[in-house]
Design a protein that fits this description.
167 residues, mainly beta, Purple Acid Phosphatase, chain A, domain 2, six-stranded mixed β-sheet, five-stranded mixed β-sheet, hydrolase activity, metal-binding, EC 3.1.4.-, Metallo-depent_PP-like
Length: 167
Amino acid sequence: MRVLILSDSHGEAKLLSEIVKRVKADHVIHCGDFCTDEAELPKVPLTVVRGNCDWAQVPQEQIWEGEGVRFFITHGHKYQVKTTPLPMRYRTEEVGAQIGCFGHSHFPFCEKVGDVLLINPGSISYPRGFPHATYAVLEKTDKKLAVTYFKTNGTLITARGYEESWA
């Protein structure tokens, strides 16, 4: 399974579409602040949530499951993600998910907190506290789960990422 995780595109619908076409994921997760009409989002298998800057009437939280992995998706502004990962961890556990995906801070973050893997893909439009606009790709096989970060032009970022055995 290959999942594209991105956030905070802030109206950059063309860039969003370019990334989606390049990555060729089985599923796309957008963690909010897309700031376009919902009709401008890519027509692919997509889970999207509303960020604090969005006007489209999409859910503020979503659950998505793929290949036995349960994802909790939210923008993060209601979970203090700019100061601590703990509220995201607690909410992700509360809904029975193994992975929590969020945006809002525009800063790429991937860390296992307790039994929960938290992923912030950064922002594809306006990075903060990191020199590049970024997105993440999660790949799961029978034996491992890996998260890799990329610049918006597709260049690998080796300073971020995660990998673990997955049974």
